[in-house]
Amino acid sequence: MSLETFGWGPELAQAFSVVVASSPLPLVPGRVVRQHRGLVSVQTAERTLWARTAGKLLHQAPGAESLPTVGDWVAMLMPPGKGEGMLHAVLPRKSLLVRREVGREQGGGQLIAANLDVVLLVAGLDSNFNPRRIERALTLAWSSGATPAVLLTKVDLHDDATSLVQAVEALAPGVPVLALSSWTGEGLDAVRALLPSGKTGALLGSSGVGKSTLVNRLLGEERLATQSVRVEDDKGRHTTTHRELFLLPHGALLIDGPGMRELGLMGDEEEGIEQTFADILELAEGCRFNDCTHQGEPGCAVRAAVKAGTLPEERLSSFEKLQKEKAFQSRQTSPAAQREQRKFEKGRTVMGWESSRAKRRKD
């Protein structure tokens, strides 16, 4: 199978030639199509085989973000027989979807997929539907370098899907929002249109929203196991235990993986937040003070919009929560940010002390 089928092109060929020129090894290009624990499966021009990351690449990588993940293009040394290949380099990426590792308050990025053209944010039109979760997912998607789209599944289970579509469109201006049913087939052609031949997409959503069922319908065969949600709490059960890239019949590439309930920020999602909450930032331009924090300052256009009912309080709270989380994560890795925070805390302590002293004098 040709590498062009999997998205290979002139820019990648140029990047690969640079790697080959600096290595004495007979390296070949390939794309990571599956990841399961410590191994990855790589598609080359000749065949698909399992491979491990070379010790030198592991040692020299500045962090987990530099190691191969599904969707990556790599330079690999082929085994002499039917053994495992050895990955010696990851070619430059055009996008990378990553979240903070679950269970860690700081650092520890978990790679989801690389070299994406579109991130398909999947939410079920049942009790799983949560606008705040969609805003968080949009922030990660915009930050990846890919373009997001929202897929609202299980439309056949909801009597008024149109109102929910409009609600998501309101919080994601300019982002395609599709309502679909994998059981009836409604909306599947629109999903295919989001993924033209040769383009790569990834599904992002929690367990039970119908990602595996959607992949099966797009593939035209039952390749992935599926399960119904738990009746007692409407939560999904993990049926997909690894990440895998699928070649769809119409030529597009789609990555699916385990469901994710937690989508922690890494600290560098400034652009993603700006894209997701462009409406709030536009309102903020009308605030009296350039450094307005929207916490009660006079002339705050954002709070005025909340009071007028044109900006939901919940959306502003979501914006503030993500801003604080991003700032916290950024401080963990940036010495400059840590110094600024200490300066801010010191200033706040001094102001509090002076205020307390002034109050005691009045008493």
TrEMBL record:
Q: What is its main location?
A: cytoplasm
* Keyword Nucleotidyltransferase in record: no
Q: Where is the EngC GTPase domain?
A: 114-261
Q: What sequence ranges are listed for the domain CP-type G?
A: 104-263
Supply one GO BP term.
ribosomal small subunit biogenesis
| Stretches for region Disordered | 323-363
TM stretches of this protein: none
Gene Ontology terms: cellular component: cytoplasm
**Which parts of the sequence bind GTP?**
153-156, 205-213
EC class, as a word, reads hydrolase
Supply the alphabetized keyword list. Answer: Cytoplasm, GTP-binding, Hydrolase, Metal-binding, Nucleotide-binding, Ribosome biogenesis, RNA-binding, rRNA-binding, Zinc
Q: How is the cofactor bound?
A: Binds 1 zinc ion per subunit.
Keyword Oxidoreductase in record: no
Q: Where in the cell?
A: Cytoplasm
Q: Where is the composition biased (Basic and acidic residues)?
A: 339-348
Family annotation (InterPro entries): G_CP_dom (IPR030378), P-loop_NTPase (IPR027417), Ribosome_biogen_GTPase_RsgA (IPR004881), RsgA_GTPase_dom (IPR010914)
Q: Which GO terms describe its molecular function?
A: GTP binding; GTPase activity; metal ion binding; rRNA binding
Q: Which CDD domains match?
A: YjeQ_EngC (cd01854)
Supply the Pfam families for this chain.
RsgA_GTPase
Q: Give me the residues that bind Zn(2+), please.
A: 287, 292, 294, 300
Question: EC?
Answer: 3.6.1.-
Q: What does this protein do?
A: One of several proteins that assist in the late maturation steps of the functional core of the 30S ribosomal subunit. Helps release RbfA from mature subunits. May play a role in the assembly of ribosomal proteins into the subunit. Circularly permuted GTPase that catalyzes slow GTP hydrolysis, GTPase activity is stimulated by the 30S ribosomal subunit.
Protein family according to the UniProt entry: Belongs to the TRAFAC class YlqF/YawG GTPase family. RsgA subfamily.
Put simply, this protein is called Small ribosomal subunit biogenesis GTPase RsgA
Q: What is the lineage of its organism?
A: Bacteria, Pseudomonadati, Myxococcota, Myxococcia, Myxococcales
